[in-house]
Every structure is written in structure tokens, then in C-alpha cells.
Specification:
Helix content is 83%, strand content 0%. It is built from 15 helices and no strands.
């Protein structure tokens, strides 16, 4: 047993966690990590719900032009409305972070899904004000849904390696959905239009919300005496949760790594299409291949990094792999904006995606392992920080582009990645030394 695990067991929240493990989790007994197929059979409702959470904004982005026509607004104005979702995610994710660990995570997920269902129904009206409410509610709903699902999936297992792998399976599902969602929503829209897509999201989200509500109630009834004992354990107060989280070794720099990584990657993606058009003359149709390449490399990087980190004896630690992946991502990002060869730019684009995906898997794994019963709070703040990172990256990337062209963008975004790399070294130095029982 590591000192990190011992510290979690000694925390005031640990008895509740232990009780939950005894009565409601899919324990692994000997500490082995189940295979991905077995985990998928256990976690498929969580994975499905996480996939659905990405669909509303995918519909909004894919059909932005017809939505703008329906709302009698300009494309730019409708595009800017999506920023409201990011602001809502930042505010709600931060404000409600401690509450994720104070309620049943299935019920928190049900609440997030219910908000998504309501937002989709409002957005289907096509009214400008309703679309503004749609963007706000989608941001708020996913700010609760995603960390609740990730933490609930991790809580299904009683050892750090399996819990970390469960969490990265949820994030891998989200990256796969981001890759496939556009064609998947475009095909049904041929039959019923973008409004029909939103009504379908509303229906599916409502069914899933009911499922998680009943699932949480069944677990509450099944836990019986052990759950009541866990509930009697004194939990930290609202502000105390933030203080306790900040006191955990390396957690604050880890959250900053996630925010800066997201800023660098999303800023890079914001101007990637324009770069390929200006430098290599690739139009939107051809650039779709590049986008698929980037998305596929991100999905595979997230999937395989999560599996590597869940091994009984991984060949490389999460902290070291995170630093190495940031170095690869930094080098590839800077080089891609300077290259004059399309055949060199394509593999560099794949490396940027794989590097950032690996960092994302490392961050999720480390938060799950280091934060113990505060993992819900940590994952919620992490999601809020990444929402802020999206705006930070797009804004700073634009500043770099206006001042120095694409080399200026590479310098600005590379600088963000470099700061993340320095913080990753701080995370590695904060690792508690292993101890023996």
C-alpha cells in the first residue's frame, strides 16, 4: 500500500468511501484491473450518457447556418452564443464542485441529463432567446454530468489502477463521440432536420435521466445499514472541500496543467483549418480528412494511454508519461506551424493529438488516484478549468496570429504548453514516496 492510499484512508471522508465499496461497488478483489470489455459491460450506461452529453453542441455547430436562418440572426452572432455555454460550465462547475461528492453521483448525473433534455427542447424552437438559453443550459448541464459520470465510474472499483482506467474509458468515449458525432447527427437530420435531432436528444436524455435516478434509488435501498453508517460520517463543508483538495500533493499544479493543455490544444484546433488552407490550399472538404486524422489520434492516444497506466506494473509512471507527452506535443505543435511540407505536417498533426490525449489520460488518472473521496470535486473543477482553457487558448492564439502570423500562434500556444510542462515536473516532485505495510 502506498502512502497516497494510506493518506486517503485516513481522511475524514474515507469511512464513507469504504462503506460504499463494501456494499455497492464492482470490487476487483486481488487488485487486478479488469479487461476493457468487462469494464465496458459494467460501465456502458455511464459511457452512453457521456456520449449523449457531447451531442447538443455538435448539432449546434454542424447546423449553425440553418439554425441562424431559423433564428433570423447572423452566423457570427449565433456562433458567439456558444461562448455562453463555456461561461456557464466554468461558473457551475466551480460552484457545484464540492457537491458532487456530497450527493449520490447517479443522482447528480440524472440532474445533468434532465437539464440537457430541457435545453434540447428549448433549442428546437429556433427562437434566438431560446437558443441563448440552450447554450447556457448545455454548458451548465455538462458541467455537472461529465464529472459525475467520471467519478461514478471510478467509484465502481476499489483499487486505484482500476478506478483510473474506468475514468479514462469515460473520457475515451467522449473523444470517440467528438470524432463520430458530426456524421451521426447529419444522417438522421436528412429525415427530420436539425430540430428533430434536438428532440431526439431531449428524449434520450430524459430516458437516461430516469435510469440514473432509479439506479441511484436502488443503490440507496440496497446499501442499507452500511450506507446509513457512511452518511453519518461527517463530511467537509463547502469551503473546506476546496481547502482539503488544495492541500493534496500536486493537485493544484495538476489542475493547472489540464487548463493550460486544453488552452494550447483548443487554440491550435481553432486555427488549424485556416492554416491548412493558407499553407497547403486545402478546402473544407479535403480538410475533413485532416480533422479525422487529428480526432482519431486523440482517441487512440487517450484509449491506449489509459490502458498503459492501468497495468499492474506500468513501465512508466503517470507523472513521467505526462511530462514526456507534453514535450512531444510542444515540439509537434511548434513544428507544424513552421513546416512547408504537407507530408510532414500530417504526422505532426497526429502527434499533437496523440500527445494531448495522453496528457489528458494522465491528468484524469492522477486526479482519481490522488484525490480519493474528493475525486468528484477535483474532476468538476478540472472540467471547469478546461472550459476556461478553451476561451484562453482561442483568445491568445488569435493574439499571436494577429501579431506574428502562424509563427506567432505557435509561440503563444507553445508557451502555454511549456508552462504546463514546468508544472508537470512540480506534480512529479510532489508524488508521495511509496511505503510498505
Amino acid at each position: 500500500m502506498s502512502s497516497e492510499t494510506q493518506g486517503a484512508a485516513a481522511s475524514p471522508e474515507a469511512p464513507g468511501k469504504a462503506a460504499g465499496t463494501a456494499v455497492g461497488q464492482a470490487v476487483t478483489g486481488d487488485g487486478a484491473v479488469p479487461g476493457d470489455l468487462r469494464m465496458t459491460r459494467l460501465l456502458w450506461p455511464f459511457m452512453l450518457a457521456s456520449a449523449v452529453g457531447l451531442v447538443p453542441f455538435t448539432i449546434y455547430s454542424t447546423f449553425l447556418v440553418p439554425i441562424a436562418h431559423a433564428a433570423d440572426g447572423g452566423v457570427a452572432a449565433l456562433g458567439q452564443l456558444r461562448g455562453l455555454g463555456g461561461l456557464a460550465a466554468l461558473a457551475v462547475g466551480t460552484a457545484l464542485a464540492p457537491l458532487i461528492d456530497r450527493v449520490r453521483k447517479e443522482w447528480a448525473a440524472a440532474g445533468g441529463l434532465a437539464v440537457l433534455a430541457a435545453s434540447a427542447a428549448l433549442g428546437a424552437s429556433g427562437d434566438f432567446l431560446m437558443l441563448a438559453a440552450f447554450c447556457l443550459l448545455v454548458g451548465a448541464g455538462t458541467a455537472v454530468l461529465n464529472p459525475a459520470l467520471t467519478a461514478a465510474a471510478a467509484d465502481r472499483f476499489d483499487n486505484d489502477a482500476a478506478a483510473g482506467r474506468a475514468a479514462t474509458l469515460i473520457t475515451a468515449t467522449q473523444s470517440l463521440t467528438a470524432l463520430l458525432a458530426a456524421p451521426l447527427v447529419a444522417l438522421p437530420a436528412l429525415l427530420w432536420g436539425w430540430q428533430g435531432d434536438l428532440w431526439a436528444v431531449a428524449a434520450i436524455s430524459s430516458v437516461l435521466a430516469l435510469y440514473f435516478l432509479l439506479r441511484g434509488r436502488r443503490r440507496h435501498d440496497a446499501d442499507g445499514e452500511a450506507a446509513e453508517s457512511a452518511d453519518r460520517v461527517e463530511k467537509p463543508g463547502y469551503l473546506e472541500s476546496f481547502r482539503l483538495l488544495g492541500a493534496l500533493p500536486g493537485v493544484v499544479p495538476l489542475l493547472l496543467v489540464a487548463m493550460l493543455r486544453t488552452a494550447a490544444f483548443m487554440g491550435y484546433l481553432a486555427y488549424l483549418a485556416a492554416f491548412y488552407d493558407d499553407r497547403f490550399g486545402l478546402g473544407p472538404e479535403t480538410f475533413a480528412v485532416v480533422w479525422t486524422l487529428s480526432g482519431t489520434s486523440f482517441f487512440l492516444g487517450n484509449l491506449f494511454a489509459g490502458r498503459l497506466l492501468s497495468a499492474d506494473r506500468p513501465r512508466i509512471s503517470s507523472e513521467r508519461l505526462m511530462a514526456l507527452a507534453l514535450l512531444v506535443a510542444l515540439s509537434a505543435l511548434v513544428c507544424v506551424f513552421f513546416t512547408e511540407s504537407l507530408f510532414l505536417a500530417l504526422p505532426l498533426t497526429a502527434l499533437v493529438g496523440a500527445g494531448h490525449a495522453t496528457v489528458a489520460a494522465c491528468v484524469t488518472t492522477l486526479l482519481v488516484r490522488r484525490c480519493g473521496s474528493l475525486r468528484g470535486t477535483a474532476l468538476s473543477i478540472n472540467a471547469a478549468g478546461m472550459s476556461f482553457g478553451v476561451f484562453l487558448g482561442a483568445g491568445l492564439g488569435g493574439v499571436g496570429l494577429s501579431l506574428g502570423g502562424y509563427p506567432g500562434t505557435s509561440v503563444v500556444l507553445g508557451g502555454l504548453t511549456l508552462v504546463a510542462l514546468v508544472l508537470a515536473r512540480t506534480v512529479a516532485r510532489s508524488t508521495p514516496p511509496p511505503t510498505t505495510d
